[in-house]
Amino acid sequence: MAVFRLSPLRVRVFSTCHLRYRYQYVDKLQARLRVADTAGALVHNVLYEFFGKLPRKERDRERLIAMFEERWAALSPRYLRMEGIQELHDRNLSALQRFAEREDLGAEPFQVEAYVQVPIAPEVILFGRMDRIDEEPDKTLHIIDYKTGAHPGDVDPSQLHLYAIMVERKLERTVSRASFWYLDDGSVWTTALTSSDKKQALAGALATVKDMEREKKFKPNVAPHCAGCPYLYTCEVREEIAQRRQAEGW
Q1: How high is the pLDDT of residue 154?
Q2: What per-residue confidence (pLDDT) applies to 33?
Q3: Residues 195-201, mean pLDDT to the nearest whole number
């Protein structure tokens, strides 16, 4: 039996739309990322290098902004000519400026961009990469996930629960807290993590693996999330999506 590799992203894609799951994980089609996706990856890379590579004494607001501007200028000329690119630049610059005003730039994270993979059942590997792990005063760990967007209102913490499972199994340290840091509006969503939360998340992940393996129909779920889908270009219901977007304004 082949090893099933599960990630929080894979779980999220499956729960969002089974048809996208087929395109991404079964058919393995090429994704067409949005302009904003490249910008978001750049911001994550800047924060990784800022906290992961710079000595504490060299970290300040000016250095953070300079790193962003340097990496933005190094993007391909074709990308920099795309429609809406200046607005995207300004929005991400403002997000990092707010971050610098609000957060401790001298913080020493326990780990940044930590890649972890652990077995959670026979023939099932759970893997993922975490933006940042901080150590709490009581020596427990705090997982932080940066989001290049504003607070969505409703928050699904399942991604954070799966990260906690991975970290605890790999490092044999207790994860007591997990947070989403929304860079666009500077808001933070935090949750305390209990043993019950992690146990429930593990059971849910294993149940989802079984659902993924049994899935044969891969029905679409047409909703506003379709507007940002990297497989919209080839989606078999893209005409329905276009009609819904026009009628519902998303």
Answers
A1: 85
A2: 86
A3: 94
Tens of pLDDT, residue by residue over 128-181, are 999 999 999 999 999 999 999 888 888 889 999 999 999 999 999 999 999 999
DSSP per-residue string spanning the chain: -PPEEE-HHHHHHHHH-HHHHIIIIIS-PPP---HHHHHHHHHHHHHHHHHHHS-GGG-SHHHHHHHHHHHHHTS-HHHHTSTTHHHHHHHHHHHHHHHHHHS-TT---SEEEEEEEEEEETTEEEEEEEEEEEE-TTS-EEEEEEESS---SS--THHHHHHHHHHHHHH---EEEEEEEETTTTEEEEEE--HHHHHHHHHHHHHHHHHHHH--S-----SGGGGG-TTGGG-TTHHHHHHHHHHHT-
